[in-house]
Amino acid sequence: MKFRMAKKKYTLVFFFLAFSISTSLSANIFRQNIDRELIYKQIEESKELVYNDYSGALELLSKAYKESLELNDSSLTAEVLYAAGWIYYIKGEYDDSLTHFLDALDLYRKSNNDEGIAKSLKGQGLVVQAIDRHTEALKIFEQVLRIYEKIEKPQLTASAYINQGISYLELNDYANAEKVLNKAFVVAKRYDLTGIKHHYYNKSGEVAFQQNKYSKALNYHQEVIKDSINANDWEKSYAYAGVAQAYLKLGEINLAEKYALRAVAFAKGSESIWDLERNTAILSNIYKAQNDLEAAFEALSLNQKYRDSLYNIKTAQQVNIMHLEEKELENKRLNDEVILKEKELVLTRLQLFGVIILTILLVVILFLIWKNSRQKEVFSEELRQKNEVIERNHEIILKRNIALDSLNANKDKLFAIISHDLRSPILSIQQLLAMNESEMISPEDFKILNSKLKEQVNATLVMIDNLLQWSHSQLDGVLVNPVMVDLHPSVLTVIEIYKAGANFKDIKINVEQPESIPKIKVDKGHLSVILHNLISNALKFSYSGKDIFIKYLVDENFVTLIIIDQGTGISKEKIEELKLSQDQVLSKLGTGMETGTGLGLMMVKQFLELNEAKLDIKSNPGKGTEFRISFKKD
Fold this sequence. Notes:
It contains 20 helices and seven strands. It has helices at 2-49, 54-71, 74-90, 94-110, 114-130, 134-150, 157-170, 174-191, 194-210, 214-226, 233-250, 253-270, 273-289, 293-437, 443-473, 487-497, 499-504, 524-541, 572-580, 600-610; strands at 482-485, 508-511, 520-523, 547-554, 558-565, 614-620, 624-632. The radius of gyration is 40 Å and the shape is flat. The relative contact order is 0.04.
């Protein structure tokens, strides 16, 4: 009976503890959800306060930041940091703004939050824009637009278009400014984005004003003033200032003064030094037009004060931003070192794993060898009988192997020739495309080079066809099929393939126009390989901005092709090695860090000998090299 009572007692205690823990966990989760909602509310309130109570907005965010850390919620902390970056930006404190945007960006990237990454990048772009680095800002906003396109949130693109419009406006690119502002307005109308509409009207008014369309500018700015209930002090300050400067240009000076004074008042309310500097400058011009020189001087003095303040702020903040960028580079370097060490650790583990696998394989192989040795006695008699058959067939097999080795060697040489001759023209095409991709050439220059690229591709295709036809004829061995060939057209065909590479290194190929050259007797495929290698080498070892000269010399028995480059040259010892050696010669790097295989001159020598032609090399190290190739005349 006592046992049953004790069991019942313990059961009640267990259920009581379970209920207490469950209730406590539920209460904790409920409290955390309430805390998160409170932090989001504080963020929204700070954004509303910034235009009217800057200090209050920062105080709210400071509290929200501490609470987000207590909750250990990195995504919530990122939202607070982003909001702080935005508020600092509104007030022109760009160094603090950039710091908070970058901290938020780091947290968003760690959580793979694309939308957060986009808006942090947008904040970074705004700071860069504010210190007049507009080309860099445009690139950042383009990244933002790509992310919004990726996550399929077109309603978020409007602000990025507005920001692009501001940079285009500062760069005096009014056509592109109008283009992106119109895109922003389309999105704003579709999703009823009031703030974006206000930005559109104000910036479009400024574009119109800069194009001397003052009535049109008035209409744009008046749209913001009509919606004064929804517009904040900053938007109204910009709109009233825009109306004031338009009226001044239209000769309505009294109206201009009225709107300028309102603009200054709103700028003071929003505590925006940038707006105060702009608005006091407009007011000074208005007083000057009224011949009220005392008031004009007073407004100008205020303007100078705000301008100096802006200059000092921008200068200090540019220095701070440079320090931030240096710190970011240092952090990147440290991160790269950590990544490198991690890779080294992974490589070490892989090597260890490889050693273990090799050890296992070795054990297996040793076991198989032992097993095979046990079977040798069984197979020995069978092997003795088969050896007699093998010996009879050995001579036949040996002859076939020799023929096969010879055929493989010839095929290897053919593949080496084809790959060597294709390398340079394809490298030239690759370099041209790389220049375009890295924006080293302008769109106008690329249009010009595009036709040359097409010619290069066509010429390369012709060369491939010729090489394939020739290599097909050589499959049974390196054969010589001499025919009568016009040397000059063959030279021009090869030069066409290397034009893009020459342009890339700013090298001019000067070809002597001969009056008449007798045909030469040579294998066409061999001639193509010879010309490709010599012209490619001349281009490879010539200095940028120099010339290559191609001339002809005709005597009783030979037609001589002369190729002169202005490059690194060849030492006497190297020339002797080239003349005497029949093997592949180690190739050095070209003037543009081009690599080579060392096969080129070896093939040139072999093919010249097969065609009873001669090679002569003269060189002045550091100044250039002259190659003379003499072919038999018709």
